[in-house]
Amino acid sequence: MEKSFLKVLQGYQSFREKYALGDTSVMQYLSHYGQQPKIMVVACCDSRVDPALILQCDPGDLFVVRNVANIIPPYEIDEAHHGTSAALEFGVRFLEVNHLILLGHSQCGGIQALLNSQNTNNNDFITNWVSLIKTPICDLNDTDSCAKQALNQSYQNCLTFPWIKDKVIQKKLFIHLWFFDIKTGQIFTYSNVGEEYLPLDSNEQSI
Ligand SMILES: [Zn+2]
């Protein structure tokens, strides 16, 4: 068997032992009482940026949606199939999370696709999806600063959802813009005081 596939089978066994075996397991509890996560994360599909792993969370802690380049689309009521918007609605309106973390990252292939968007013929969906982000004003070789600008655009799009905007105004929902550096494993958080990304510390404030 392939080594990588064997690894996931072994991981599954470890998961069951740690979280699911016995009458007092975490999974038994979550099954009985349901999920009540207080934090929602919008992250990229990138295999190096797993929110639960980076933040060392347990089952039930995070409500997560992942898409290419961690994009929040604008609020649009139409006949299209809005997967990320549906997840936002579930998390914010029905689970009533208190924190919404938009987790961008360095070396993002989705952002790179946005910057190479003149090559529209080599994919079916990616170029159109990332075009939700207006091309950032940045050096086309500086993917990371473009990714940070994209996070700010996603934040603006968040506020086009009326039930997100209302909760932000009422201080029932706090939005955080985080940028994860793959090489160092460090998170930087957007501060609207200096309009810059600063290392995350335990005094983290929402924007
Ligand atoms: Zn990415």
Stretches where pLDDT is under 50 for at least 5 consecutive residues are none
What would you say the CATH architecture of the largest domain is?
3-Layer(aba) Sandwich
Range of strand content: 15-25%
Distance between the termini: 48 Å
The whole-number mean of residue pLDDT values reads 93
Principal-axes geometry comes out as globular
Radius of gyration: 18 Å
Helix/strand-derived class? alpha/beta
Strand order of the largest sheet: 2-1-3-4-5-6
Percent helix: 25-40%
Query: The CATH topology of the largest domain is what?
Result: Beta-carbonic Anhydrase, Chain A
Domains counted in the coordinates: how many?
A: 2
Number of strands: 6
Structure annotation, total helices: 8
Following the backbone from N to C, one meets helices and strands in this order, namely: HHEHEHEHHHHEEE
CATH superfamily grouping of the largest domain: Carbonic anhydrase
**Which compounds are bound in this model?**
zinc ion
Summarize the main sheet.
6 strands, mixed
